Amino acid sequence: MAEVIFNKLEKVYSNGFKAVHGIDLKIADGEFMVIVGPSGCAKSTTLRMLAGLETISGGEVRIAPKERGIAMVFQNYALYPHMTVRENLAFGLKLSKMPKDQIDRYVDEAAKILELEELLERLPRQLSGGQAQRVAVGRAIVKKPDVFLFDEPLSNLDAKLRASMRIRISDLHKELKKSGKPATTVYVTHDQTEAMTMGDRICVMKLGHIMQVDTPDNLYHHPKNMFVAGFIGAPEMNIKPGKLIDKAGRLHITIGDESLPLNARQQEKVAAYQNQSVFFGVRPEFVSLSDEPFAEGCCTGEMVRTENMGHEFFVYLKVADYELTARIPSDEAKPMIEKGLNRKVWFKFDMDKCHIFDAKTEQNISL
């Protein structure tokens, strides 16, 4: 068992600045938990308190078993420059007085998992960035810990290497689970792609507070508040101010000078907010475009610019005094784009996929 529990965890610095505000989080044995958020949200501080590298100002961190087997991989590889890859991998085990034959076995196992076998006699200066990071991960693996901690380990790599290392670390976690020796993993990143592709669950943080802890799918499709809605997803969710009004006995949301009817579920959820200002959110892939008016529930906007992503286009519309992003498959977008920019087009939303947020609390009132 290697369950990790944060109970009312706090961090206050000597100058009085409160970095972590009494957070509660339970990470299950063998779970891959990603802590994600923008710079300055205290995600690394939280991880360092878990690792024992940062003092705890309040609350507690609980880890089972009592003998905490923890291994940490940092953003900086910090390999010993005068030691070979083999010696770097073995160093921590030698300090623990482990027998040499056992050290050799553990090092060989880690090297095989991370495809380092051909590099074991090289020095760190002879390694690429990706290879050096694999060695850093290998140093953690050989300890056979109960808990793996990763602090932005891929941020120094280029995009291609980041993608390949994401797969390696995810596969390592799955292999350990299959072998019957699961390791609880806590992985800190500011990169939402890493979070969405690697985590069993994701903890989204903002300014030392937890905004939401959920599966990647739920975070994307059912964000609890405007911060999560805007932070998760690229391009980010369209979030615009609006007002809930009654038209012919049915609630509508205003979009610029126009209004759109809510579906039955949404009407029931937000009925108490009639005539109040709210925020309306829709992801770009749930915006449809046309050169002609749709049969029902459409608005108009000016197509002002596009971005060609290969298999799809990001199309930007000027609607009233704000901009709206649509994510359109290439085959659908090209005929419209070829007719030129700065012209009127029609758009509609998949209302079943839209969200409405309280203007004051920023909580999702349409869930």
Please describe what this structure looks like.
This protein is of the alpha+beta class. It has two domains: 4-230, Rossmann fold; 235-358, Nucleic acid-binding proteins (OB fold (Dihydrolipoamide Acetyltransferase, E2P), Beta Barrel), CATH 2.40.50. 28% of the residues lie in helices and 34% in strands. It is built from ten helices and 19 strands. It has helices at residues 43-51, 85-95, 100-113, 129-141, 159-178, 192-198, 216-221, 226-231, 264-270, 330-337, and strands at 4-12, 18-27, 32-36, 58-63, 70-73, 147-151, 184-189, 201-206, 209-214, 238-247, 250-255, 258-261, 277-282, 287-290, 299-308, 312-319, 322-329, 343-349, 355-358. The strands form four sheets. It has a six-stranded mixed beta sheet, with helices on both faces. A five-stranded antiparallel beta sheet has the order 12-11-10-13-19. A five-stranded antiparallel beta sheet has the order 14-18-15-16-17. A hairpin with a 3-residue loop joins β15 (299-308) and β16 (312-319). α2 (85-95) runs parallel beside α4. 37% of the residues are buried.
